[in-house]
Amino acid sequence: MNTVTCERAREMFSDLFEDALSERERAEVEAHLAHCARCRRAYEQFCYLVNAFRALPEVPVEPLFAERVMARVRAEEARRRERRVWSLLPVVLPRAAAVVAVGAIVAALVVVGVGRLRPMPRRFAAAPSAVATAPAKAAAERREEGLRAEQTPPTPEAQATRGTPAARATAPSTEARAAVPPPKGRAARITRRTAAPRAEAGAPEEIGVGEAEEEARPSAAPEAAPRGRAGPAGEGALSREMLAPAPGIERARESAAGAPVALRAMPAREEGAADVVAPRAPAEVAAGPLEVEAAPRWRAGGRGPRGAPAPPVALPEPRAEPAVEPPVGVTSLAAVVDHVVVPVTEGEFRGIVSGTYNFELDNVSVTFALRTVAKVSNTTIVIAEPLRGRVTTRMRAVSAEDAIRRLARVADLIVRQPAPSTFVVLGQDGEEVWECNGGGEEDKLGGPARF
Amino acid sequence: MPESDAALVRRCRAGDAEAFDTLVRRYQRQTVNLAYRLLGDLDAAHDVAQEAFVCAYRALGKFRGAARFSTWLYRIVYNLCLDELNRRRRRSAEHSLDNFYAADDSPMLDVPDPNPDPAEEVAVRLLQREIRRAVARLSPTHRAVLVMYDLQGLSYEEIAEVLRCPLGTVKSRLSRARLALRAELAGKLEQFAPRGGRSDLGER
Q1: CB B188 within 8 A of CB B125
Q2: CB A72 within 8 A of CB A64
Q3: Is A55 in contact with B99 (Cβ distance < 8 A)?
Q4: What pLDDT is recorded for position B202?
Q5: Is residue B154 pLDDT above 90, yes or no?
Q6: Which residues of B touch A81 (CB under 8 A)?
Q7: Domains in chain B, please, with CATH?
């Protein structure tokens, strides 16, 4: 009755396991197993293996995944409608709009606070609908300030932060700065910032937040004159070792000293500029210099009225009391960082500047770290809440996106820590080391910083 | 009673983007996990899953309902994963197999465990680590069939829809994939699998 060879029997293991054999086949293979010890053992292992495989755990979906998808979907939908409108106009017009919109994205590098970023063309085309409320007005004022500040030409230091060899060459002061150890991080920071034209904007005490908040302006006020990001002044705090662009990015950064980099790096995707992966809350940024309010994204309008995709209207957002209950499905109060995708790479739609970077961040605030990454990669980051905590990390040859995600994860980790604590996260390859300080009060933004 | 996929798809196509929200929430877990098991990288998996949903939304107009929405979506995920894997192959050095499925070892992943026997549990965990490595070495097609059938619980029919191949092909691919996996693990199984009797590790 031995009609089945060992080889054939093994081919039948899978169906035997699934009970998917015919009576006859089953009898045959079982007969074979009855007298062939090796195949019997092999089948045991086979079953064990399949079961062990089936017991692999599921991985959790990141907390705001669906929100991110829907933000893009709504943007898409809004864009479609937009296109319908545009299609009535001469072809030139939308193109111009797209170009300008790209400029606006470039300006909109980092948003602190809660912003529902609307698709750029709409922003550009439609009247600003967000300015009705008091906080929004405040934002508008700040935005103007920011505008003024932004228009001032970049300082050598600012250029140095771009990290290109060329830029570095034009900024010999980098060396000097690196050589002089700041007496106290914060003081040093302030000095640098006063050197930068933009420093006027924030009171020195509020450097951390003030600066972050400045960053918010361009996005908070996307209707403002679109412009290339000319003067990222005030970021002189980066030592040049921190930003060592890996070769891939050199091309894009070649002329990084000036504004048009991003413009050049971004093939204008006509239809839409940014794929805005934004949290759901509709409120525009209205964060004061000291407190970046924890605006609860899950409240006040949430997703907007059903059936009306992405209404650009920013509802008046009541200032949030910090202790808001998280909504079901969001695991932490500050499900923290959302990256907003700027379409940049040539050809590929990957969302973020291609190329890899090395980052070395030594005990900097998570916000600063994120901002750093955003800066070098022309990425917009939305930080919904003040991020506590500081981070020390080395990331080698990571894409900007990776870096952001990792930082976001760390930020999330820290925020979830109820008590101040320090912990270390080993990177996937064991090469990166994160030291996170969950920090207490003083570690809030603007705490004793050592940038 | 929850709204059916087909009904939701109809609403989406009628311009109701919010109906899509329900679909996203319904399928995000499977989508992310499928991508993760194909790519071995949690971040990339989220990216691909996000992209897949957006692509699906864009393409809903072309979705004629011949297949299930789920398998149609998984097919998009599968294709995007293949693209991603191809891209990686082109810049090969970047992704080493060591990182494959690193998220499984992440301390953040705390999966409650039903297994009462710690020693057995350790053995299974060790074997699972080996399995993950072995799975990473399989061809994407084999990996896909294994993942969809054994991890995601898709039927042969559904897998055939995803891969656009005949039912029989799915079966034979599954069989071959399992044997390939077993071959990859030849030595390890000897080490970890207990002797005697069919293991009754928890079926999922």
Answers
A1: no
A2: no
A3: no
A4: 38
A5: yes
A6: none
A7: 1-90 (1.10.1740.10), 111-197 (1.10.10.10)
